[in-house]
């Protein structure tokens, strides 16, 4: 039997007001009209498409990313929004969240959707920039002037999108990474090689396999990047793009289990059954593997499952199903990845290097599409299939 908290007007509290949080709050309010649904968000205005911050919005002037929800949508759905003060404490025993202004929010069930922020080991160095918000993009864009020397530390998805935006503005771009390939933390090597070739053709200089240190430069606002080999690169603009750091520090010291992110099971239930988690903040422990997916589609999928499960007793909760999907844009090309690839997967290209397959033990784990959006439906249906079938399906594709 399913069932919510034993109360006529159950109190559902969502902490974090971006993709995962707003999705879950709106769903909870629509499906449970008798419930009191409150969202506590640190951002006054976090409802825009963060994926555009390193893509179209960084290229466009002015920087205006698309909104995926408006304040009116929350109100119309019946969600009470308390924005502007981040949550600083949760007491799972007494079921209360407290925000930075000292406001207390009692709950029956809470959802943690506080996402992540860019990691920045050089946050103390003035001029070492990260890219997370529309304001970050506007600030960075103003510096991407023709001829500016831009150094990007981290040749991952976001770093390379910044590289493409900087080249479009005629900057001199160098990307450095301690890994010996690009996108090395995400995808098998051949995909990184292809992406690197496209960037190199567009005059991005790569320095790979090299540890890096970022220092403040004597000349105001500038930085210098020193490499393990002794080379010193002077930069007008330095962008740190070395990955994300989940916003879960505020939960430490409570009974909730935290590893890198907030640990949960496949139903998104944490070590306290009245606290669930969705989006980038979640570390999902399955029977055979652990998932931490920093993608919009995973945020949406986990938010939907978590919102449903918040209204159920633990025994009746369902597991989340995450397909996994992300994309990247550069120089008019689009890379799309379906599934859950790892750099260690076997890999082969088909269809003239427009479709690539990742596999483990002969089973397809992910499909990589390069300017092949028309193949997305076929690609999705092949996930989990024996790799031999895929060869048959895609070999003839043009
Ligand atoms: C530049 C950039 C480009 C990206 N491009 C892509 C892409 O192309 N494709 C893709 O799939 N994904 C992309 N991502 C990742 C994607 O944006 C995230 O996976 C997604 O935003 C996760 O959603 P979320 O709701 O879990 O967390 P977030 O979007 O991180 O939102 C968390 C929210 O919680 C708030 N918050 C944090 N701490 C607290 C607190 N203590 N109390 C209250 N509120 C709090 C924050 O202010 C924020 O509004 C990109 C990310 C960045 C930064």
Describe the structure.
The strands form seven sheets. This protein has a five-stranded parallel β-sheet with strand order 3-2-1-7-19. It has three domains: 169 residues, FAD/NAD(P)-binding domain (3-Layer(bba) Sandwich), CATH 3.50.50.60; 113 residues, FAD/NAD(P)-binding domain, CATH 3.50.50.60; 70 residues, Enolase-like, domain 1. Strand 11, helix 6 and strand 12 form a beta-alpha-beta unit. The protein contains nine helices and 26 strands. The chain has 398 residues and is of the alpha/beta class. The protein is globular and about 65 Å long. It binds flavin-adenine dinucleotide. Flavin-adenine dinucleotide binds next to helix 1, strand 2, helix 7 and strand 22. The site of flavin-adenine dinucleotide has 36 residues, from helix 1, strand 2, helix 7 and strand 22.
What's the structural blueprint in terms of helices and strands?
Elements: E1 11-15, H1 19-31, E2 36-41, H2 56-59, H3 71-77, E3 79-83, E4 87-91, E5 96-99, E6 104-106, E7 109-112, E8 116-118, E9 128-129, H4 134-143, E10 149-153, H5 157-168, E11 172-176, H6 189-201, E12 204-207, E13 212-216, E14 223-227, E15 232-235, E16 237-240, E17 244-246, E18 262-264, E19 275-277, E20 282-285, E21 290-291, H7 296-310, E22 325-330, E23 333-339, E24 346-350, E25 355-360, E26 363-370, H8 376-382, H9 387-394
Parallel strand pairs: 1-2, 1-7, 2-3, 7-19, 9-16, 10-11, 10-16, 11-12, 18-20
Antiparallel strand pairs: 4-5, 5-6, 8-17, 13-14, 14-15, 20-21, 22-23, 23-26, 24-25, 25-26
Helix pairs in contact: 1-7
The protein binds flavin-adenine dinucleotide.
